[in-house]
Design brief:
Elements lengths: L1 H59 L5 H7 L6 H29 L7 H64 L7 H24 L4 E5 L15 E5 L4 E4 L5 H22 L7 E5 L7 H16 L3 E5 L4 H5 L2 E8 L2 E8 L1
Parallel strand pairs: 4-5
Antiparallel strand pairs: 1-2, 2-3, 6-7
């Protein structure tokens, strides 16, 4: 019996190790998902800062809004034409200045014309020319900055889309392992598979002892959302009513039969998973006093089938009716000098 328990504990430890490994992997994937989410938030902040910086630059440049600045982009193709106009104007200024020098040399001592008015006109023309040059340089610099910012924004947008797609996959895996939507996480999924095998082995005996009335099954309902995890609750299917109900609604005798079936089913599954280890001896303590005569017969027949399969079954009970049904008994008697025991054979 101890060897079987140790083998069962070893298998249980293996299952726990597998569950821990799965939880670590899930935690790792969750951390990666959080890192991706953090990067997305950082990129969003950078994008917002870039948009705000662009708006500040546009306002500092004298535009009423970004929309008004974009409207000025239509004039960017005219820059070469304006530059040509400026060069042509510069050439004309030089020609005029040369002509003025020739005229001044020619007139010599002649009466001077209104030079102040002419110079004022020349100064105005030079200022206008300088303003055009400065406007051209400003527009060229802004255009280059806008192009760079446009490319940076496009790269950030593409990176954000890639991060979003990556998070969808990681997030879906995490949701599945954590069981947030189904109520069954990875650990409960593994334990549920083992419990199904135990229930299948237990039902073979419970149906016989209950005269084909009861069978055990896992509850899959999640009606009470206050319960965060499901998948390991046991319910009883009643063939007489056609409905399943909680196991705690069974009577005392029915509960004993269900517990006995589960114990035998667990022993079969442990033996199947333990390879060459066999559970040759089994002891059952009490519980028979809650059974009626017919149900007691079915329970004893089930235990007798175990004995015919090579197992030794020991029953510990105070029920007098069992004495007539058990061939070999170890009776314990109380005396004023203590307890004594003796073997009795029918």
């Amino acid at each position: 019996m101890n060897r079987a328990i140790r083998a069962y504990e070893k298998d249980l430890q293996h299952c726990r190790d597998a569950v821990v490994a799965g939880e670590r992997q899930a935690a790792k994937q969750q951390q990666e998902a959080q890192n991706w989410q953090h990067q997305v938030e950082v990129l969003r902040d950078r994008f917002s800062q870039g948009v705000q910086a662009l708006r500040d630059r546009v306002l500092a440049a004298g535009f009423e809004s970004v929309k008004a600045c974009r409207a000025m982009q239509a004039a960017v193709p005219q820059i070469p034409e304006l530059e040509e106009s400026v060069r042509h104007y510069d050439q004309q200024v030089q020609q005029v200045q040369g002509q003025l020098a020739q005229e001044e040399a020619a007139i010599g001592t002649q009466e001077r014309p209104d030079v102040a008015a002419a110079r004022a006109a020349l100064d105005g023309a030079e200022k206008a020319s300088q303003a055009l040059v400065e406007a051209k340089g400003s527009l060229t610099a802004r255009y280059q900055r806008w192009q760079q910012e446009k490319e940076a924004l496009a790269a950030l947008q593409q990176e954000g889309q890639n991060l979003t797609e990556a998070y969808k996959t990681v997030g879906a895996v995490y949701e599945l392992i954590a069981g947030k939507q189904t109520g069954i996480n990875f650990e409960r999924y593994v334990l549920g598979a083992l419990l199904d095998e135990v229930l299948a082995a237990a039902n073979g005996r419970l149906q016989g002892m209950s005269r084909q009335r009861y069978s055990l099954q896992r509850s899959q309902s999640w009606d009470d959302k206050r319960v965060k995890q499901i998948g390991l609750d046991i319910e009883v299917y009643d063939n007489y009513t056609g409905y399943a109900r909680p196991a705690n609604t069974l009577s005392g005798g029915e509960t004993f039969l269900a517990s006995l079936s589960l114990a035998l089913g667990l022993a079969d599954v442990v033996q199947a998973y333990s390879g060459g280890i066999h559970l040759d001896t089994m002891f059952i303590d009490e519980g028979f006093g809650t059974l009626d005569g017919e149900t007691l017969d079915y329970a004893l027949k089930t235990l007798a089938s175990l004995r015919s399969g090579g197992r030794l079954v020991g029953i510990i009970s105070h029920v007098p009716e069992l004495k007539e049904r058990i061939d070999a008994r170890l009776a314990v008697h109380k005396t004023d000098r203590g307890s004594t025991s003796s073997f009795e054979f029918a």
